[in-house]
Amino acid sequence: MLSDSRFSVDATRPGYPRMRADTRPPSRRRPFVDTDPPEHVTYRRMLNAEFTVRRITAMRPDIERVVDGLLDAMVSRGSSADLVSAFALPLPSLVICRMLGVPYDDHEFFESRTRTSMSGASTAEQSAAAMGELFEYLEALFAQRQEQPADDLISKLATGPVAQGALDRGGAVGMILVLLVAGHETTANMISLGLLTLLRDPGLCDELRRQPERMPMVVEELLRYHSITDTVAIRVALADVELGGQLIKAGDGVVTLALSANHDEEVFEHPDRFDPDRGARHHLAFGYGPHQCIGQNLARAELEIAYRRLLTRLPDLRVAADVDALPYKYPAQIFGVERLPVQW
Q1: Mean pLDDT, consecutive 10-residue segments, the chain of 344 residues?
Q2: CA nearest 184: which of 81, 108, 258, 111?
Q3: What residue numbers bound the domain in which 138 lies?
Q4: Helix (H) and strand (E) counts for the chain?
Q5: Is residue 268 part of a domain?
Q6: Close Cβ partners of 283 (under 8 Å, ≥ 6 residues apart)
Q7: From CA 92, how far away is CA 305, in angstroms rounded?
Q8: Is the dihedral of CA 58, 64, 67, 70 positive or negative?
Q9: Can you give the CATH number for the domain in which 141 is found?
Q10: How would you classify residue 251: left for phi > 0, otherwise alpha for psi between -120 and 50, otherwise beta?
Q11: Is the pTM of this model over 0.85?
């Protein structure tokens, strides 16, 4: 379904599912993630070069420096920390800020607006207001880059597609907003949840210290196992489609569930078990089809480097709290822990 052109991501179409009763009708001005091919493909091509495997491979030394800097700061403050605030959240925020050209000094502003928009406790008005404030902030920053370009993605959009008339400023700012929000919130939650899973198996941690080449496969299993996003995709059918023996009529809305798909017993043996040797990269943590997460290569690199350096630099790292009593983000669009006390 995720690669089937008979299903649309366009939220303005009749029948498109509303995930909450107080959601406002969508604007005709849609972010690029809510457009169908070929329009979506056109927008995506404006960003693809920044997220290729080659580009992210070239960024790895910079990511490693960020990781080591955060670990240095943690160690300098003592032998304990909240991993979420000291490491898991600042790592992807720093990386995506440098990539986009967003000042990290403003991280509390955009992180708080993201939390509000993602929280299930927020009303539709509160979520919309938070995203509106973030859009205005990025719009002002984009205008600055139009006047004074730098070596960042905002400047590349300003001097490229926008200057050439292929994209308007609002569309470019919408792209940056999506990349900024998705580029820090999802990875931050995966860093903390994934580490929590690893630390519950000290034997596996020892193996990964000796065999770091296994880390990419372990990351894939962590992504599948946790499936931290509420949904993989929301669609509306454009035609009658029979799927899995079920007739979906034109105009019907469809919501795909990441956790269900990634824990499908017909696809994964013992799906509710974390198996570091599973080697399953065909999960749907990053979606599938033309709307598959454009930042997946970056996320994988950040997770691999973060787990590897945490385990090797802090060999005595352990959770300093009752795991069953940890505060989790619920309800929220992206699952995670609020805090993760650790010691080393």
Answers
A1: 92 86 56 86 95 98 98 98 98 97 96 88 88 96 97 98 96 95 92 97 98 97 90 90 94 91 93 92 89 95 98 98 89 84 98
A2: 111
A3: 41-228+295-343
A4: 12, 8
A5: no
A6: 220, 223, 224, 227, 261, 262
A7: 11
A8: negative
A9: 1.10.630.10
A10: left
A11: yes
